Amino acid sequence: MTQPHPLEKIRTCIDLILQYNKSLFIDKLRLGDMPSDTARCDLEQIFGLTAHIREMPIDGLVENDRASLAESLENINSLFHEINNYDAAAIVEVEKILREKIRAQADHLYDITLPWRGLINFLYEST
Question: CA–CA separation, 108 vs 85, rounded Å?
């Protein structure tokens, strides 16, 4: 069986990610209960960047960037699936692990999109 094209994987992952209920995640993991809690900001960043990427002409990305983006979005989708299926009555340690994973995925998505975001914005604005 052939693997889907990275652009198809990217678009599918974006749709799946944006279907999740951000407010439910925030409530479920009690994000923002403490003033120093950055997990809520990280979650907002993931949803914001993902929505922004959906609107950009990603077809202009080189193959390596497409593959990196597809992998990052697949990891985020897996994390969101894990959070969605997480039993909120479980121990606090699980929440800590999920918060750390949110942070790591937000950082990774930001890092891999940073080098080409300016170019994509330029292409997007000039079309």
Answer: 23
In a domain, 31, yes or no: no
Three-state DSSP class for residue 117: helix
Binning the chain into helix, strand and coil, the percentages to the nearest 5 are 75, 0, 25
Q: Domain for residue 97, yes or no?
A: yes
Each residue of 31-74: pLDDT tens digit?
766 655 788 888 989 999 999 999 888 888 888 888 899 999 99
Q: How far is CA 121 from CA 18, 27, 82, 114, 125, in A?
A: 21, 33, 32, 11, 6
Residues 99-118 have a mean pLDDT of 86
